[in-house]
Amino acid sequence: MNHLKNMLMKVTLAVSAASLLSIGGLASSTSALTSNTSLQPQLTETAASTTQKNISKPIPTKSSKHQNVVANMKKLASKAKNAYELITYMDRHIHKVKPEQATEMLIILEKYYENHVEQVIGQFNEKIANPKLYKQLKKLGSNLNKFDKIKDKSFKKWLLLQQKGKLKLDYDGTLYFYRVDYKAIQNAYRSAFNKDTAFYLQYTTLSVEELYYIFNDNKKPPYDTLMKRAAAIDEYIQKTPKSRHMKEIKDLHHGYLWQFFNRNWDDMIDKKTGKLHPKMKKTYASVIEKYGESRSGSLLVKYVDLIAQHKDAISDSDGNILPYMHKFWDEEYSELYKQTFK
Length: 342
What we know:
The protein is mainly alpha-helical. The chain contains 16 helices and 4 strands. Strands 1-2 form a two-stranded antiparallel sheet. A hairpin with a 4-residue loop joins β3 and β4 (275-276). α11 (223-239) packs antiparallel against α12 and α14 (278-291) runs antiparallel to α15. The longest helix is centred in the first third of the chain and has 30 residues, at 99-128. The protein is flat.
């Protein structure tokens, strides 16, 4: 069975104040000196020169101010030692700029996280190598982001700093690690974005919560939910071909379909008969009824048809997966995916 999971993983397509210048004062001072005839030519020439400088000097616009906000955030990201510095900057500016600039700010933050999260995990592992700190961490239980039981002030301060940087401490059953807290980012900034970025952020937040828990049966989303997400994301891809986040949105779509089919190996085979499990067959039928007309659902339709051609048989009497299933996942699925979503 593990071999089949590995096969599936092979074929999956892998799984973000300048004020206006004024020449009014110059005009009034020039008129006030017109009675002094000996100085008037010199003053007039000076005034004209100064006026010309003011005219030629570009007047800052609201758009240029917004661009400066983005440029300054890029500079900050290049030298920031922790994510909280960027979050503080975003808190101060993101709701004052246009949605396009707000999107650029999110992208800068995500780019910063790419390397920073790994650095934070490394720092965290060094800290909990101290038995005393590790013992305090264990006392948190499942409330990993409530640090009231952490007695070491330095450690607690460090944990709170990461939290303020919108990083979330998590545990996979074996290791502690940090990940981006997209839910916190969405809650803080979603009103600043346009519809495109809001959609991307919404489904990224959902995917972090839903796709991460693939190995936790108590938190796995239903098959219906997985296909619902895949169908909605693919519909958006078709309607919004110029999305600023197209690559990331396609990755989300791949992720939901990957989990939909990957989870099948735990549920789909009736060990007594080697055939498609009756419960799984019923689940497939229900999902097809709702989403069979979508491009994402069409993959399941073809998959179920293939199984039906072999009278629902998936494994032989020894529990070995039948050759047609090997061929589908080794050769046919990736091509089918490319043709469906080209």
